[in-house]
Input
Amino acid sequence: MSFDTIIKEIYEEIKQIDNIGKIASYIPELLKVDSNSFGVYFSSNKGDNLGVGDYQDKFSIQSIAKVLSLSLAYSIKGELIWERLGVEPSGTSYNSLTQLETDRGIPRNPFINAGAIVITDILISNLPEYRKSFLDFVQALSGKKTINYSEKIAASEKEVGYRNIALCNFIKSFGNIKNNPEDVLDFYFDICSLEMNCEELSTSFSFLANQGINPYNNTQILTKSQSKRINALMQTCGFYDESGEFAFKVGLPGKSGVGGGIVAIHPGEYVISVWSPKLNKKGNSFKGIRFLEKFTTESRFSIF
Ligand code: DON
Output
């Protein structure tokens, strides 16, 4: 059976199942989305592309953007970034504060909020026009100038961002935030507010399926080794305290966001993006995970 047929069949099957998930409600603006939205975009290194359902509708990519901010920081600072944060799964939820006290302000990995906040601080220290530079970087990855921050979503999150404010100030107290916490948080909320559709998401992540090289314009974003490491981090930490289960069920490196998006990568082969806004208890897309589990099982095309 071809990929096209498998994807279309699984899409129809998962579309019908009862969705027991819930839209993220702690960011009020996210509640405005149509909860039945469901889109998929598959893009292979060989040039096969397929979009199904709402794959052209934009959504808030939220924590998925943490992979892109990490990639930019890694390309600028190289291995030095690992002096400021770890590479271990935390086994905690994305917004947990608990380990920071014993870990003296060094976040366990770059995908929990604490780690992504430190990465944001690194970008501010190294890029005079950080807000513009990050957007330029993301737009260049996909060649899509239409990708942008959402001021509404960033403002909505800022208004209720108590845990992130606590995280940033707590890390600052250990000296692992160098800039003004308010500037770091504003930029962190901007990064999380990026909006993309499934097609743009798959395209933006293609460099991670191509050993660090953007296949659309042949630019080297990361070295082969850095690309390997980011994929390894997505495999072990991309779904917080559900990372083991995602590896077990899906068998691909991936990253989720509370907007209901998931991007998954088969290095050397393909990128697949799924969007369905209702989340499971761990904050990851309920149907997104179901879809990807079926896809890698039926296509027998995972990394394991
Ligand atoms: O910082 C937050 O809470 C959100 N901007 C991002 C969290 C997120 O997407 C977690 N992922 N599943």
The CA atoms of residues 59 and 287 lie 16 Å apart. The mean pLDDT is 97. Residues 62-63, 94-95, 113, 157, 164, 192, 256-258, 283-284 surround 6-diazenyl-5-OXO-L-norleucine (CB under 6 Å). Strands lie at 39-44, 49-53, 59-60, 195-196, 213-214, 219-220, 254-256, 261-266, 270-275.
